[in-house]
Design brief:
The complex is a heterodimer of chains A (about 475) and B (about 110). Chain A contains 16 helices and 15 strands.
Chain lengths: ~475, ~110
């Protein structure tokens, strides 16, 4: 039997606000344990939550970017006993989420429905001590409440995806959108964006959903793809042998490459939601929604379109991938400015998508002016491709330095046309036999002469110019 | 925590039929250990409360908007400005058990004390 995968994703996004959702404690990753805590996020008796206006604004930006309806909403208490919340409940939005009924368009044009994007508070961080840190066998646990109360938006997709590749595309595009709205730094490795996947199988061609499993602990796009593939294969083996899939929550073990059932935190998933009496409704009016919309910059899809436009209709294949990478990394402004300065679009795009992207965060920190100067020098032939890449690395390593000066210090002073012609003539004079063969039509000897000239000039010559000079002499 | 019941999955229970088993279940969710006599006592008391709720639910209120909050107020917000947090030593001194500047708790899934 042929099986069809059905995938829905739940993404938790930590909002990039200065303070927590309901109190003035700092929202910061990596601080000393239990230094950003107060009576409100510790749930001490008598404390009262007050909603953070900026967190609401960021949540509305997410809803707007995902084409959701922004609606009158309210908060509820989700009750459970687990020490990651000191007050024994989590404040979340339940039956009245702020954002509902939107969609996200993948780069290939496929639309994934977005059920809702609601606000809630994050939990504290638990560390399990003893027996390798496993939750079930640990001796005891330690709690850091710095993260408790950090604002989250949980984005729930419709079960619209049909392959692990599509799920990865969705998560990558959503990450780009979250970063473009300024709502999140998108750092999956720091838990700023956390993905849970609901996976089920059904016979191809049928419409009823199979029994699903929810997979947690997906800390990278790679883990997401691997976990979905593993889980689909596991479910298929069960179904093909006539067994059934149990609906359960499973944990992805990255090292072992498999999913495992998690022990239930609460015996019954009965959270006894009720309206949070300490918070009044959140009802963004039309004017507020319009202010949020007007303040938003272009989304990744718009930015890809703008970059593609620099290539006319010819941005296909590898170039389309480069455009996607450059936009994902936020390097598109550099490319646009370089093209504005007269640099060929393909060259600017290639340097950004390959060499600059390889530098990660450091690449993003390169001043735009340095990037433009560098690719201009390469475009004008003042630097060869090899030299330009070397200077780019040096400029990234020390962003204060001027690329022209770096190029001089590295000995990449461009050879004047006269010097180049002299160097070529000298090499020809030293190798008369090879030159005769080249003149008689052995084109592959061009490479030989270029190498000789490069050696003679200590790599200061531009290979393309040497080739041009050889052709000029021959013709 | 995000797994579990999503909105709309809450079944309406039939008023007036609260069973002792349901009282035991709800007590377990709240980590309360009840004696048989207490289960009997609270089952009767909670039935009275639910009967009252059933009386309200029986009214035709379709012309009224649901009340999310008794106050006619919305959008109570504060600016996103950091305020001082508590002193860690002072907070941890009030905890029953501390290790490595963190609250020490029993292993997750251990039986309730």
């Amino acid at each position: 039997m042929t099986w069809e995968m059905v995938i829905g994703l739940e993404v938790h996004c930590e909002l990039a606000s200065a303070t927590k959702l309901f109190c003035g404690c700092r929202n910061a990753f990596g601080d000393e344990p239990n230094t950003n805590i107060c009576p409100i996020c510790l749930g001490l008796p008598g404390s009262l939550p007050v909603l953070n206006a900026q967190a609401v604004e960021l949540a509305m930006r997410i809803g707007t970017a995902l084409h959701c309806e922004i609606r009158p909403s309210s908060f509820a208490r989700k009750n459970y006993f687990y020490p990651d919340q000191a007050k024994d409940y989590q404040i979340s939005q339940y039956d009245e989420p702020l954002n509902a009924g939107g969609w996200l368009e993948l780069p290939d044009g496929f639309r994934v429905g977005v059920t809702r994007a609601h606000m809630e508070e994050d939990t504290g961080k638990l560390t399990h001590v003893g027996e390798g840190g496993r939750i079930n066998s640990a001796h005891h646990a330690l709690v850091d409440y710095n993260r408790s109360g950090v604002p989250l938006v949980e984005i729930v997709s419709e079960p619209d995806m049909r392959s692990s590749a599509q799920a990865r595309d969705y998560a990558a595009e959503l990450r780009g959108i979250l970063m473009a709205t300024g709502a999140s730094d998108g750092r999956m490795e720091e838990g700023s964006m956390r993905v849970d996947a609901n996976v089920s199988l059904r016979p191809a061609g049928t419409t009823a959903f199979g029994t699903r499993c929810e997979i947690k602990n997906l800390n990278s796009l790679r883990s997401l793809g691997r976990a979905i593939e593993y889980e689909a294969a596991r479910q298929m083996a069960l179904l093909e042998s006539g067994e059934r899939v149990d609906q359960e929550t499973r944990h992805w073990d990255e090292a072992a490459g498999r999913t495992e059932p998690m022990r239930s935190k609460e015996e019954a998933n009965d959270y006894r939601y009720f309206p949070e009496p300490d918070l009044v409704p959140l009802v963004p009016d039309a004017a507020w929604q319009e202010r949020v919309r007007a303040a938003m910059g272009p989304m990744p899809a718009d930015r890809r379109a703008a970059l593609s436009a620099l290539f006319g209709d010819t941005a296909l294949g590898a170039q389309a991938d480069q455009i996607r990478a450059v936009v994902d990394l936020g390097l598109d402004t550099m490319v646009e400015q370089a093209v504005g300065a007269g640099v060929p679009a393909a060259l600017a795009l290639a340097r950004a998508a390959n060499e600059l992207a390889a530098e990660g965060d450091r690449g993003r920190a390169l001043p735009i002016g340095s990037f433009v100067t560098l690719v201009e020098m390469e475009a004008k032939g003042e630097l060869s491709a090899t030299q330009a890449k070397a200077v780019l690395r040096a400029a990234v390593a020390d962003v204060e330095r001027d690329p022209r000066q770096l190029a001089r210090e590295m000995g990449f002073e461009a050879l004047g046309a006269d010097t180049l012609a002299t160097a070529v003539a000298d090499v020809i004079a030293a190798h008369p036999d090879e030159w005769a063969r080249y003149m008689s039509g052995e084109d592959k000897l061009a490479g030989y002469f270029i190498n000789e000239v490069m050696t003679a000039t200590a790599n200061k010559a531009n290979g393309k110019e040497v080739a041009a000079e050889l052709r000029r002499l021959r013709d | 925590m995000s797994e579990g019941t999503e909105p709309g999955h809450h079944a309406r229970r039939t008023p007036g039929k609260l069973s002792p088993e349901e009282v035991v279940h709800v007590a377990a969710l709240a980590r309360l250990a009840l004696t048989d006599a207490e289960v009997e006592l609270f089952t009767a008391q909670l039935r009275t409360v639910l009967d009252h709720a059933a009386d309200v639910a029986a009214l035709d209120l379709s012309h009224l908007a649901p009340t999310a909050h008794p106050l006619p107020v919305a959008n109570a917000l504060r600016p996103d400005e950091p305020r001082p947090s508590l002193d860690r030593e002072e907070v941890l001194a009030a905890a029953p058990s501390v290790e490595d500047n963190r609250f020490r708790v029993p292993r997750i899934g251990a039986p309730a004390p």
